[in-house]
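#lab-general

N.A. 3:47 PM
ok so I finally got the sequence cleaned up, no stray characters, all 182 residues accounted for. can someone with queue access submit it? mine expired

B.Y. 3:52 PM
send it over

N.A. 3:53 PM
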Amino acid sequence: MTFGNRATRRQFISKGLAVSGALAFGLPRANFAAEAQINQSGGPSPSPAAAMGITGPGSLKAHAGAKGLLFGTAVEAQLLSSNAEVAQIVIDQCSILVAENSMKMGPMRRTPTTYSFEAGDALVAFGDAHGIKVRGHNLNWHAQLPTWFNATASKDNARQLLVTTSRPLPDTSRASSTPGTW
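B.Y. 4:20 PM
back already:
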């Protein structure tokens, strides 16, 4: 698919939005017109993006890469492991991932003395397995602080609490690679 004119670019974006929108709203795969045509012919059932011709050299990551850019999304590893269609779209379309919440302080440090890196590690492992870069998210964000933080933090110890949270990051013993940026 070339982008020599605006109509073609709009069609490309519309198809991509149709795929992601249908998945977001849980519409069944049969609602993809292009796939329905392929299935009527008795052929294999491709991913929705493949059925619409927006994978490989037609993918968003390919078009971004041609301009020296990365194309990506914010996503959680749990969604990638539980929804094969979403995972395939991410693999086909993305060259970089950002954790929605799993790399923020609240989910990673549920108590003052415990850390949980499993969800972030799973996202990095997914990226590694599919050649997709992973960028760490903002570690401390007002809406994702653990419940204990406000009760524990004071003017005198807040800095130390934040430093001790970031000290174990990144630890390459937990995953085969670490985020390219944080």
